[in-house]
Specification:
heterodimer; A: 470 residues; mainly alpha; 2 domains; three-stranded antiparallel beta sheet; two-stranded antiparallel ribbon; 19 helices; globular; B: 198 residues; 8 helices
């Protein structure tokens, strides 16, 4: 028994099983969610010395699995992030029971997560780029289901994610040469440029962000939110692995300044563009871009403790995406499209759905009392410490989502026609309950962040050499 | 032997990639892509053992077979507006020539990034395929041609990478990625076919 077998091979096998029972909607949903939560719990509470005791039986779990001369390695430091990934998979699989999605969603989402975990576990870790590409290719049928036109957004998603692959692999080859090269070697600059460009493609950093709002407009919000949560977070963890592994990369004095600059630029561009959107789905895409910006900014603020904020941002982000995407997907069943004009007066008919969408948006925006606020507040303050102007730009970017939320509220609450002005609750109890639970969870995280968020710091155990970790 | 054929293979790859960019006929494109994979095999075999280099050829031809068989089942795949326009040929041809000129001018700088032991035909063919593949990606929104563009870019990279590193796992994973891309192309094509028939 080994950890890669439990958290990579078993889920892949289970994905195969889910594919076989894909037409049995309720069964695959229930089993999928149960298995995902079991994997998450197992990862969260797995013994630190990797010894499992079952009554009189005691056996040790290996951390390695050899495949074709290469190794998959999952040690206890990786388990907190793996736990979160499977927890999110479980949440999204449960939610998929409410919507008419591709029957393949559950099987493919499991495979994508297992492959992404394999990407983080593979040694030499540069092979991860190929595994990430395989995960991207697997997610295409989800984003562009059978029977729908192939959208430009999906094509751009495929192009940009694939173009990152050669850049990362080439930078990997250069990195191996740099370790023996003198400090002034031009190879360092070339590798850094390839690396930054590769990750810019992967993380949809400006100007490679165009596919994000496109797919979030055309594809189902539930699937888009899952992909936009799982892919960027894994890629960011992979990026941190680079910084953790290579001393010369950590030693570049401008590294954190550049990350801060890229993060701020992403937040500002995402924020300014979201303020002018007229489509709730596109806004979700821009919110994901802003969140990537915040993660990059947090890493850039490592000397000020930014890595802590980076790890603690993941859960509030996931909850907000879940609430926003769930409410949006439900609303999509009742309206022609998700443009602001089409959802005018929706609050009078669907107050819970509209409330869920607004709370999801405002939580990501960092409204006080909501889940992201305690962390965003720390990031704002930390960003102002080295550079006040930087903080001003971040403030402008953050305001974009507030402005969009305000516009959404105005459209939602526009008075309906004169004969139909009374408020009605048209949502079923089965929809109201999950929305209420998510709203309560967001408020609890916002009001009592000390309860759960510090536990997320254990994600950083995966990085042994990363500087500034306290 | 493969090194001696290097320049000839470069010309072959240049010709195939340019004709894929220029022509909008799936039959010609699939056949040309198959010939291009033959050229890629010759270039990769300069640095890799023959048994490993042949993976590129086998996978490439499998991709062409998969794409070709799928295209056969689709009616009117090439019936697009731009195919009929002479100006679109001129535009793509001119763009392609421009890229070729730029790449020829840039090759000494690109060569300086990589170890001098890498033969020049490999660098030239690699950069050419990447350049023309990128141009193809920028000029079309048809899924079939997008996938061919991506395969061309990846082929260019694979030629270069073969001169830098020999790894059977990497070769296997890259073969998997190439096949995956082809399958995504087939998926897109069958979706389009479904739309046309409904």
């Amino acid at each position: 028994m080994s950890t890669p077998l439990i958290w990579i091979a078993l889920p892949l096998l289970f994905a195969l099983f889910l594919a076989l029972i894909q037409t049995k909607h309720v069964l695959s949903c229930t089993l999928g969610a149960l298995f995902a939560f079991s994997l998450a719990l197992l990862a969260a509470f797995f013994s630190e010395n990797l010894i499992v005791e079952l009554g009189p039986l005691t056996f040790e779990v290996n951390t390695n699995l050899n495949i074709l001369g290469r190794v998959l390695l999952i040690n206890t430091g990786n388990l907190p992030f793996i736990s979160l990934m499977y927890f999110f998979t479980g949440l999204w699989i449960i939610g998929s029971g409410w919507f008419k999605l591709s029957n393949w969603f559950r099987a493919i989402s499991f495979s994508v997560v297992a492959i992404l975990i394999a990407a983080l576990a593979v040694e030499p870790f540069l092979y991860a780029a190929l595994l990430i590409e395989l995960a991207v290719l697997l997610s295409i049928p989800l984003l562009s289901p059978y029977g729908e036109k192939v959208s430009t957004g999906v094509l751009r998603f495929l192009i940009f994610q694939t173009l990152a692959l050669p850049l990362i692999l080439l930078s990997g080859w250069m990195l191996s040469g740099i370790e023996t090269a003198p400090s002034g070697s031009p190879l360092i600059n070339q590798a850094t440029i390839f690396l930054i460009l590769g990750f810019a493609f992967w993380l949809a950093v400006f100007p490679f962000h165009t596919w994000v709002p496109m797919i979030s407009q055309t594809s189902h919000p539930w699937i888009v939110s899952f992909i936009l949560l799982i892919l960027p977070n894994t890629m960011l963890m992979f990026a941190l692995t680079f910084i953790d592994r290579y001393t010369w990369l950590r030693a570049i004095p401008e590294l954190y300044d550049v990350l801060r600059l890229i993060g701020t630029l992403t937040i500002v561009i995402g924020g300014v563009l979201v303020a002018f959107q007229r489509h709730l789905g596109r806004a979700l895409g821009y919110a994901a871009i802003i969140e990537t910006g915040f993660s990059l900014l947090a890493v850039g603020l490592s000397p000020q403790g930014g890595m802590n904020w980076f790890s603690m941002l993941i859960l509030p982000r996931a909850l907000a995406y879940w609430l926003w995407a769930f409410s949006l997907s439900e609303l999509k069943k009742h309206v022609d499209d998700l443009s602001l004009d089409s959802v005018s007066s929706a609050m009078h008919a669907f107050p819970f759905l509209c409330g869920g969408i607004l709370l999801g948006q405002l939580s990501i925006a960092g409204l006080p009392l909501l889940a992201s606020f305690p962390i965003k507040r720390m990031i704002w303050f930390s960003a102002a410490d080295p550079d006040l102007l930087n903080a001003l730009w971040i403030f402008i970017g953050s305001m974009g989502l507030f402005v969009f939320s305000l516009r959404t509220l105005i459209h939602f609450s526009t008075p309906p026609s004169e004969e139909n002005q009374c408020w009605k609750i048209n949502e079923s109890v089965s929809v109201i309950i999950p929305i209420t639970i998510a709203v309560i969870a967001i408020f609890i995280l916002g009001l009592l962040p000390q309860l759960l968020l510090p536990r997320l710091l254990s994600i950083l155990n995966a990085f042994e050499h990363f500087p500034y970790l306290k | 032997m493969f090194l001696k054929l290097g320049n000839l293979t470069f010309i072959l790859v240049l010709f195939t990639s340019f004709s894929i960019l220029l022509l909008r006929n799936w039959r010609i494109n699939v056949i040309t892509l198959a010939i291009q994979y033959l050229g890629i095999f010759f270039l990769v075999a300069i640095n890799w053992p023959l048994s490993m280099a042949v993976i590129k050829l086998v996978v490439g031809w499998m991709i062409c077979a998969v794409l070709g068989i799928t295209c056969m089942t689709i009616k009117n795949l090439d019936e697009t507006e731009d195919r009929k326009l002479l100006s679109s040929y001129f535009f793509r041809g001119f763009g392609g020539l421009l890229i070729i000129l730029i790449i020829f001018a840039l090759i000494p700088q690109v060569q300086s990034i990589f170890p001098p032991k890498i033969p020049q035909p490999i660098i030239k063919a690699s950069v050419m395929l990447i350049g023309i593949g990128l141009l193809q990606l920028g000029m079309t929104s048809k899924p079939f041609y997008v996938v061919i563009g991506l395969l061309t870019v990846l082929s260019g990279f694979e030629i270069l990478h073969s001169a830098l590193e020999i790894s059977s796992l990497l070769a296997g994973l890259l073969a998997g990625v190439n096949m995956g891309l082809a399958l995504v192309g087939v998926y897109f094509l069958s979706k389009e076919n479904n739309e046309v028939s409904t």
